[in-house]
Amino acid sequence: xxxxxxxxxxxxxxxxxxxxxxxxxxxxxxxxxxxxxxxxxxxxxxxxxxxxxxxxxxxxxxxxxxxxxxxxxxxxxxxxxxxxxxxxxxxxxxxxxxxxxxxxxxxxxxxxxxxxxxxxxxxxxxxxxxxxxxxxxxxxxxxxxxxxxxxxxxxxxxxxxxxxxxxxxxxxxxxxxxxxxxxxxxxxxxxxxxxxxxxxxxxxxxxxxxxxxxxxxxxxxxxxxxxxxxxxxxxxxxxxxxxxxxxxxxxxxxxxxxxxxxxxxxxxxxxxxxxxxxxxxxxxxxxxxxxxxxxxxxxxxxxxxxxxxxxxxxxxxxxxxxxxxxxxxxxxxxxxxxxxxxxxxxxxxxxxxxxxxxxxxxxxxxxxxxxxxxxxxxxxxxxxxxxxxxxxxxxxxxxxxxxxxxxxxxxxxxxxxxxxxxxxxxxxxxxxxxxxxxxxxxxxxxxxxxxxxxxxxxxxxxxxxxxxxxxxxxxxxxxxxxxxx
Length: 485
Ligand code: ADQ
Hints:
Layout: E1 4-12, E2 15-19, E3 25-29, H1 33-39, E4 47-52, H2 57-62, E5 81-84, H3 89-108, H4 119-139, E6 140-149, H5 156-163, E7 168-172, H6 180-183, H7 189-196, E8 201-204, H8 207-221, E9 225-226, E10 229-231, E11 241-246, H9 253-261, H10 263-275, E12 281-288, H11 295-307, E13 316-323, H12 330-350, E14 358-361, H13 367-376, E15 379-382, H14 391-399, E16 406-410, E17 423-425, H15 430-442, H16 445-461, H17 464-484
Helix pairs in contact: 3-4, 4-5, 7-8, 10-13, 11-12, 11-15, 13-14
Bound molecules: adenosine-5'-diphosphate-glucose.
C-alpha cells in the first residue's frame, strides 16, 4: 500500500485532464501556485498527495466510454504518489459548490456576497471531510507529517487526530479568516473551530487571520490561550497545544525569473505591445473571475478616467485576463455578467474599430504568456475587495527583472502587508483608486525603479520555497516540544 512520511491533503490533486493535440485526453500537471509551492518540499521525502481529481466519480463511470484515462498512481517523474478521494455529483453540489463556495467563501471574504447556509450542504461537508481524513489516516506512515490545506477541509485535522493520534498535523488556510462577529453567523461555528484545533499548527496568511481566529477560539472554546497557543483539555500524558501562526504564501521566484528573462518572453512582450498599436501605457488585470477580486470596480474606475480625459483612450489600453471559475455558482454568473456589461459598454462608447479601450480575454493562459503580459504591462491593477494573499501581485513583481513597471494594489489583500512600496488603494474608494491609477501611470522612471526594487527585494527573499520551509520547520518544532511539556 502507498504510504508517505509527508502527506499533503488538499481539495484537488495537482493534476488535470487536458485535450492533447492527438485528440486524446490525458492527465497533466495542474497549473497553479500551490502545486509548485509544495513540490519544492516533496522530492526529498516519501510523499503522498491526497485530493479529488476534479471529475465526479458517478460522471466518470457513466462516461468511461468517452475514454477518460484513470487517475495516475503518481506523478510522471515519480516524485510523489497520488491518492484520489472520489466525489459524487451530489458531493460536488453540496460540499463544493454549496458549503465551501456558497457559505464559507463569501463569509470568509467579509460577506461581500451573502453566505448561504443549508444543513444538507454542511452534512455533505462533514461527510467529505471524513473521507479525506480516512484517506490520510490510511496513507500516512507511523509518526508522519500531514499538511492539510484550505477552507474546504477545516474539519479534517480533528477527525484525523482521532483516527491517528501519532501524526503531526498542520493546517494552512489560503483565504482570510474573518472577524469574530462575522464568523459567529455560522450555525456550525464551534464544530469548525474544534476541527481546526485538531492540528498541532494552524497557519494563516497574515497576523489579522491569526488574531481573528484566536478571538473566535476564545469566545467558543473556553480553553486557556497563551500568546499563540491554545491549550487543549486532557490528562497530563495526552495534553497538547494547538499553535497558531502567520505564514504569507509566495511565488516560485526562480521559475518566474527564468521565464521573465528568456528571449522568448521578452520578444512576446514586445509583440503584444506592437499588436496593441504601441500605446503609451498598457494597464493589466489578471484574475480568477471571482466577485472578491474587484474586477468590476477597477474597470469602472478606468472607464471614468477615460471619460474624464485623465487617461487618453488613444494612448492607453487595458488588458483584462480572467480565468473562468466556479461557473455553477450563481454569484459567479452574476459577476461575469457585470464585468462583461462594463467591457462592452466601455468599448462601445470609447473604443474605435481595431482599437478597443479594454481587451478582455476570458481564458486560462499558460504561465509563459502571463509572464510576457506582466512584462508588457506598465501598470498592474490588483484591486480585490478582500484576498488572503494574492499571488498575481507577486508574480508581476517577480517578472520585472527590468526593475520597471508599477503595481496598484488593494489594501485588502494579504500581499499589501508585504508590498508597501506599491501604490496602495482602497477599492471601495473609486476616486482614491482613480488617483492612484493616474499616479502609477504617470510616475517617472526613477520613482518606478525605486519602488520596484523594494518590491522585488521583498518577494525574492520571501518566495514560496521560504514559505514551505518555514511552515514545515514550525510544525516539526512544535511537535518536538510536546513531550517536554
Ligand atoms: P486565488 O483566489 O486563486 O488563490 P491568487 O493568489 O491571485 O488567487 O492566485 C491565482 C493564480 O491563478 C495565480 O497564480 C495566477 O497566475 C493564476 N491565474 C489567474 N488568472 C489566470 C489566467 N487567466 N490563466 C492562468 N492562470 C491564471 C487563493 C487565495 C489567495 C491566495 C492563494 C494562494 O484566494 O488569496 O494568494 O490561494 O494561497
